[in-house]
Amino acid sequence: MKHTPPPPPDPTQLRALAVRLLLEDAAEHTPTSGRMAALARAHDVDPRTVRRWVENARANGGTYTPAGRPHFELTDHMLDVLARWHGNVKRAHLELKAEAKEDPTLPEVPARATFHRAVHRQLNRGQLAGLRGGEAARRRFDVFGKRARHHRNYAWETDHVEASVKVIIDGHIRKPWITWFIDCATDGICGLAITPQTPSRESILVALRDALLTTSEHGPFGGRPQRVRVDGGKDFLCKTVGEAMDLLGTELIVLPPRRPDLKPTVEAANGAVKKTLFADMPGYTEAPTLPGGKPIDPDPELLHFEVFVTLLLDWVRQWNTENTIQDLGGKTPAQAWAADPTPVRTVTARDIHAFTLERLGKPLPITSKGVRWRKRDYFAPWMVGKGGEKVHLRYMPHHDRYVELYEPTTGQYLGSAVMANQAPPAVRRELDRARRREADELRRCLEKAEKSRKARYAAVNKGPTHRLDAITQDRAIQELRDLGGTDLSSQALPGFLPLPAPTDGWAVPRPRTSPTNSDQPEEDNQ
Q: Which of 4, 12, 93, 447 is deepest in the core (most CB within 10 A)?
């Protein structure tokens, strides 16, 4: 192994140390003339130079501070001119030279090279980039540090990203949007939602449902996160999303707007899907162009939305199970998730059925037309026979075709209902069958009751008649048992104890005997 020699000592630091020791000896009245001569020989300077070092240290509070070469300093006016020219040093220097030529009272402007060096000495690279390109350009030169990963489900990040590829949706050309939740500890994509139009809180709720369930097709990721980082978008701050987070016990961390550095995990996924998936699709909007901005292929065969969704879901599967990440020690997100011993607080699909939907404030009655909401009627086959009852209505934003209905007191889920004018024929046929089943059940019940009310008797020509439907005593007892009847002996008190046998000293009653004819009163014998 090649040995790397240590760097040479800094002469300035050695001078400062020697001067400090000389000053300490002088304070203790120790002779220092001989040491000054030795110090001069060690640094190959004249003894008078060493005395100047000592005087410099006394003037600067005991610390040797070498004076640097004098430099030209930009004035505030020069900086203002440079900012007005957006960091163009050449144009700013020409303007300042012209001003100084017209007004001799202004400070003299040095040569362009000196002015250029002064600009780069007083302004760092980030400040110059900010003058030329604004805050976004300046931020590229910032140092953000690296956030600790912690454990799985410690924090999620979520964001909307517009796919930089055009697809065909119902004959129209559009760019889809993706909303996803990503675990910061493993970089695993827990869930996502794909929408053909600009996303809203609906997309967030769908993606959140998908992310919470550990049984989704994206792998083992999911469960309840401790915190979720979002930007300042109004859809992420809506009441429904806030209620869902509160019910989960998840802290919603709202980040300042236009600060992608505060959610680097989801921003890394946004950039990765663009470079590794969208760039290979026809209709990629950021592909190289010909002179004049013309596309290389003016008429590409665009993908349909369904094909785009299939390819994106396959990419998510590969990202979670096949893509190795250096920061994870060369593991895939799925391997990092499996190696983490932190317990996962899971939820079921039944648990999250309601809280990812928006709830209407007051209960609504079931009428003969169904449930009336927003001037529309919603019905379902399970509503047959429940007219007059009240239900709570929940709905997915922007999805007014179906609603979900719940019992207002217990919150029990009753079922979904479909808009009347958009109900498919199968739902209407099921509604008709439900009504016929209710009518048939009522008819059977009434017929059975009427039949049991009619008693049939046997025909006789003399004497009393008897019922034809009479049953024996054994059969009646068996039917009572089948109906849930019980023996009276089984209903005895469990604490009942039989009486003990009498002892010899007890007086017991004589057994009752049957009276004879002689014992009968006289009037009975008459």
A: 93
Is the pLDDT assigned to residue 518 strictly greater than 50?
no
- Spatial distance between the Cα atoms of 321 and 497, rounded to a whole number of angstroms: 72
The answer for 215, left when phi > 0, alpha when psi is -120 to 50, beta otherwise, is alpha
Give the start-end residues of each E strand in 60-206. Answer: 156-162, 167-169, 172-174, 177-183, 189-195
* Phi-psi domain of 391 (left: phi exceeds 0; alpha: psi -120 through 50; beta: other): beta
The secondary structure of residue 453, as a DSSP letter, is H
CA nearest to 187, candidates 312, 278, 311, 323: 323
Per residue in 193-218, pLDDT (tens digit) is: 999 888 888 888 888 888 988 876 77
- Tracing tokens 């998908």 back to the chain, one arrives at 210
Q: Which helix (H) or strand (E) holds 403?
A: strand 399-406
Q: CA torsion 306→159→345→353, rounded to 10°?
A: -50
Query: What pTM value is reported for the model?
Result: 0.61
> How far is the C-alpha of 157 from the C-alpha of 267, rounded, in Å?
9
Chain-centroid distance of CA 409 in Å reads 30
Rounded CA gap, 77 and 80, in Å? 5
Strand order in the sheet with 227-230: 189-195, 177-183, 156-162, 227-230, 251-254
SS3 149: coil
Residue holding tokens 């994206």? Answer: 218
